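Reopening: structure tokens for the LLP complex, inputs below.
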Amino acid sequence: MKYINKNFLIEKVKVLNLAKRFNTPIYCYSYKQLKNNIRDFKKNFKSFSPLICFAIKANTNVNLIREIRKLGLGADVVSIGEMMKALKAGINPKKIVFSGVGKTYSEISYAIDKKILLINAESKSEIIEIEKIAKSKKKIIDIGIRLNPNTDAKTLSQISTGKKENKFGVNEKTFLELIKYSKNSKNIKLKCLSVHIGSQIIDHKPYEKMLKVLDKFIKKANYKFEFIDLGGGMGISYNYNNKKLNYKKYNIAIKKFLKKYKSKIIFEPGRSIVGNIGFLISKIIYIKESDKKNFIILDVAMNDLIRPALYGAKHRILPAQKIGKISKKTYEFVGPICESTDRFATVKKFQKLKEKDLILICDVGAYGMSLSSNYNSRPKPIELLIKGSKINIIKKRQKLIDLI
Ligand code: LLP
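Re-run output (same inputs, fresh job):
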């Protein structure tokens, strides 16, 4: 992805041409970047060849998940809908793990029928429910239990999941009780210890701490887990100068852990697989000048990309064509929705813009389209996957008629 002759290209395709052909807004993904991310992820941990289950919630486009499956990944799902999408994309059920605090009767029943690898339970009540359903189907079901390691992931509080005040997992005492409980059960088999301490983690130290907690816990439990599911959370760089996770250090800590325990490692990465493959292409509708800044009113809004409004997330914005001249004014990029939080970024020293110009919001492949909504009765954007010079429509633009 780069500028050639002042035009921004996604692989070999000019953004300008995409906008002409498909109109805007567009979610556009690069296949090459996806392939590189998966290759790098595998390479980082190749000494113990983990099972990598893509966290479907990060991007739920079935056609994209199919490509991810072809590149060797399984799936981490959190609802029957995500499970159906993973299966539709051809993911082998033996590469699917089911996480989440509130799995319903029908979701558990469906997971059992589809013979997925693991149901990672998060409470005693859930284990009893799984056992009851398994018994009624005369089956023995492999489960995991999610431990809440009370570890601070040092990320945004809204996306932290591993501290004791968070709803996720069970504490050490309950886990020890549940190990005993499952040993005596005829219908469940405890195979996995799972954790997930949060998302967009760029400091490796919380992971090291988490592994120390696991080490202490397994010693105490004196139980052999076939799988250790370490969750996802690997942070990416949303800015040129932003830090990202040091995989080498995380890998060293896991290898040290594996010297003691011969379990198979499972990962559930979402953002690190798809975050930087996506761009949101948008056209400027109006420019509204005011004393202190110019409002750049885009045809994308918080319903298309909610991360800035919800978490104060910062995404880079680039012009689709570089004309060089820099504006002295501060620009605020906003959407047309009737909420003051409907803004993407405030920038200085951006190039001079005019109405109808195109811009790109970067690194929106994870939790972009999957968190989008129809707020203000706005149809969802088209999704494209670029492979070299080939453009694949992987989801059509939602029609207004479907909303009305
Ligand atoms: N496994 C579990 C159990 C999870 O809850 C999550 C994310 C993942 C794996 C994947 O985490 P990742 O590798 O993508 O960090 N909407 C927020 C992120 C919420 C993450 C929720 N759980 C955002 O836009 O930043």
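The chain is about 30% helix and 25% strand. The radius of gyration is 23 Å. Marking as resolved unless the reporter disagrees.
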